[in-house]
Amino acid sequence: MRTIELLSPAKTAEHGIEAINHGADAVYIGAPQFSARANASNSIAEIEKLITYAHKYYAKVYVALNTILTDEELDQTERIIHQLYDIGTDALIIQDLGILELSIPPIALHASTQMDNRSVEKVKFLEQAGFEQVVLARELTIDQIREIHSQTNVRLEGFVHGALCVSYSGQCYLSQSLCGRSANRGVCAQMCRLPYSLIDSKGEMLVKDKFLLSLKDFNLSHHLKELIDAGISSLKIEGRLKDINYVKNVTAYYRQQLDNLLNGNTQYRQASSGKCTYTFTPNIEKSFHRGSTDYFLHGRNDNIFSFDTPKSLGEAIGKVTQCNARSITIETKQTLNNGDGFCYLNTDGQFYGFKANTAEENRITPAERVVIKPGTLLFRNFDQHFESLLSKKSAERKIRAEIVVKESTNGILFILSDEDKQRSQYTLHDKLEEANQPEKQLANIQRTLSKSGDTSFEIEKVEVETSKIYFIPASTLAEIRRTLIDQLERTREENRQRSRREIRDTHHAYIQEHLDYRGNVHNQKAKNFYQKHQVSSIDDSFEKKVPAGAELMRCKHCIKYALGYCTKESGKRLNEPLYLVTNTQKKIQLHFDCKNCEMILKI
Q1: C-alpha span between 550 and 518 (Å, rounded)
Q2: Residues forming beta bridges with residue 398, ordered by sequence position
């Protein structure tokens, strides 16, 4: 049976613990340094705290150390990796292959999506280099995923939810070029979420101040079985910069969807232990999202971009029927709350948001004067009641267990076993008397032994198989129960399987003989690695040296297609070349590789 993993993001250890509580099989969190989200770094102590908690449930913790590194940073990187291994980190997510040339422990390695993993040949190479898991590019279709899986044995990880980079990951140099902040060094300025104007070769304005590079958010919640059957073993939620309520809600939602698929399935099983219960009904429409798209899972479609706003829309709640100086009336079946946040797009496609002071049935009183045309669709991007539920304890995760009580040659034997077939036992050697009220005593034994309190276990059943029902004081039973649970926790940790990478020197050929700046080779160790793997010429990274005519971005998103000017599908023609113009009047030229259906940005 293939294990299927739900992988959630963690900005901090607290985020990660809540991800585990809400159903994650694994969590990824930023290293103390050199993470692709520099604003989501964590200390060794914080990461160890998360690891200790996750391992109770046989859940895993992956640490992202996925920037490209300078020569001066390599010694510090090596020390950090040793520290991460020593505290029990389950795997390291990396981009810089110079790390494989360092003296590092046998920690499992995952190939970051920043390595641009979108071909069978690339994934095969990484598998042979010793990677345990490869994060696939988001742009892949289901057929491409299936092909990669059919020709490799490495575990495949795929994003299923969250923000989309418009560029192939690891191949975007727009932020570095325009403001000196490198995405490959963890400080992306998110230039794709800014407004641009589009002009043609004659200087004519085609589009003014729209978010032409901004995509909707990924949502493959309706395609999980399809992804798993195609070969994805790790389902990844994006969001190491998202708030804790986002992590709770989105993780819980996908946990429920995944449980429905795995229940009774003989091909796949959950990758960790325990079942979750919730105090709320998970709903991904209520967490940050810019609208939803399945991107290129089934080929190109018209539903991937969000030109009007890069902000969260939330859930559509209904159309405005009346708006006056004091209130707004909405045609809706939703329950509205005081303090809810709303937003809408006006007739010009401009985004506006406001907060409701009060809400009564389908009428809200805004905190400030709002003028909305009747018929406008209103969205709620902050549900006060829902957020209040999530701000409290909102989930509990328990490992299923049972206790059997039986007679042995030495006394009364108590055996606690859990869903993973781990067990502990305790023998009561005291001389015991038969209970005067056996039925009452039996109920007392079962009731006392089944109390698991705030431990990670839920004792679902207590079977008493002794020939007689003996009187055992409740205090003695409680102490036996505590001893059994403590011992089982230690046993689980002792028997927990940890992946260890086989350290070997490899020399198999890389997929290219020449690497230009897009190889992101930023240090000598990385250069050494590629030379060992038969790369004959290697250029410096874009961050070291900007080559003439360099691509700033290559993407599957196509502005011509979005505007109805695709040369393959439309007879319409534009005066090319086209240019994106920033609000500082910086011009970026657009090129179109129609053979490969890709758009390229160049200065």
Answers
A1: 9
A2: 275
Q: Tell how far CA 490 is from the center of its chain.
A: 30
Angle (deg, nearest 10), helices 384-391 and 244-262: 80
CA 256 to chain centre: 16
How big is the chain, counted in residues? 603
Query: What Å distances lie between residue 336 and 28, 243, 363, CA to CA?
Result: 35, 23, 8
Domains observed in the chain:
2-164+216-272+280-286 (3.20.20.60), 313-391 (2.40.10.170), 400-495 (no CATH)
CA 244 to chain centre: 13
Residue 442 has what pLDDT? 97
The candidate with the shortest Cα–Cα distance to 550, out of 598, 513, 516, 515, is 516
Q: Average pLDDT, stretch 57-85? A: 98
Q: How far apart are CA 169 and CA 112, in angstroms?
A: 9
Query: Any idea which residue has 């010694």 for tokens?
Result: 75
User: SS3 sequence, 451-510?
Assistant: CCCCCCEEEEEEEECCCCCECCCHHHHHHHHHHHHHHHHHHHHHHCCCCECCCCCCCCCC
Question: How many Å apart are CA 295 and CA 220, to the nearest integer?
Answer: 9
What proportion of the chain, given as a percentage, has pLDDT over 90? 95
Residues 426-463 pLDDT 10s: 999 999 999 999 999 999 999 999 999 999 999 999 99
Q: Which two tokens stand for residue 102?
A: 């360092």
As to burial, measured by CB atoms within 10 angstroms (0-12 exposed, 13-18 middle, 19+ buried), residue 552 is buried
What's the rounded Cα separation, in Å, for the pair 139 and 293? 12
Which sign, positive or negative, has the C-alpha torsion 249, 253, 35, 189? Answer: negative
Rounded Cα gap, residues 127 and 152, in angstroms? 8
Contact call for residues 309 and 211 (beta carbons, < 8 A): yes
Whether pTM > 0.85 for this model: the answer is yes
